[in-house]
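Batch job 17 of 40 flagged for manual review because the log was empty.
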Amino acid sequence: MEIRHRIKWLLMHLRWLPDALYLRWAYRLETGHKLDTRSPTFNARLHVLKLRDSGRDKARYVDKVEARKVVAEALGPQYLVPLLGVYDTLAEVPWRELPEQCAIKCTHGSHCGVIRAGPWSFDQAAQVYQQFQRWMRRSWFWYARERPYAWIRPRIMIEQRIVEDGRAPTGYKVMCFSGDPRIVQMHTSHTGKPTIDLYDTEGQALGIGKAGYARSGVKALDQAMVGRLCHVAGVLARAIGSPPYVRVDLYYVDGRVLFGEFTFYDSGGLRDFTPPRANEWLGRMIDLSGRKGVRVRGGKAQEKLQAV
């Protein structure tokens, strides 16, 4: 483990640290830069939002089970991955009866799920069970002091496994500002190396990536698909009150848009975008005043980014 990760691990266990102080140190460790919440950069403004909010009102949108209810009410159940069960404890999960194709997730955290894509050996099943024991005891609040996580009751949900051409589907994460979808992130891992690219609402590549990730090189997305993704994301962003920023994570499989989750703080606000000046360009879309921000869509977004 790198020394900076060791320090970060130690900081996470100093739970008496005030949130603002912890986040300054964590941001410096993750990015190498000083966190200045007065700057107009994307992560700085996310941290302003994070520190202003108790998170209690957002908890139901971050909870993976409760978020499904919002989607069903706003758009209908056809936008949801089929749910096979929800359980309060590990002991309640019918492990022996689980289908060989399913996704097992904790409802109260991030990156805390396992895909089952076939039969498990005894050792594999034991490893999965032990991993979920650790996850069920964990509060994701302490990683980046994202307060919605502090209000979520840990549970386990089982969903049907979704596939795209026999593999994990591409993730399309729509960045919505004050209820308006403006940027589409595409997350892929088909080549074995995760990539992240950003596109405008017409599906044109913006030449932006995320620190630590390669770009796929895909210059444009299908415009009809992007239109559907942005429509769904916009409806959902407005259904939860048009916050200054929310990322609506979606899949597009066999012509269907499927909901993934709501994300209020990309990477906990601890990972920058590339190139560096893109951070300010994205940050200026977050309206901290509560007033409607300036729309930046399609070609205009592309034109402005060429200067970045």
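Reviewer: the log was empty due to a logging misconfiguration, but the result itself is present. Confidence is low (pLDDT under 50) at residues 291-308. Unflagging and moving on to job 18.
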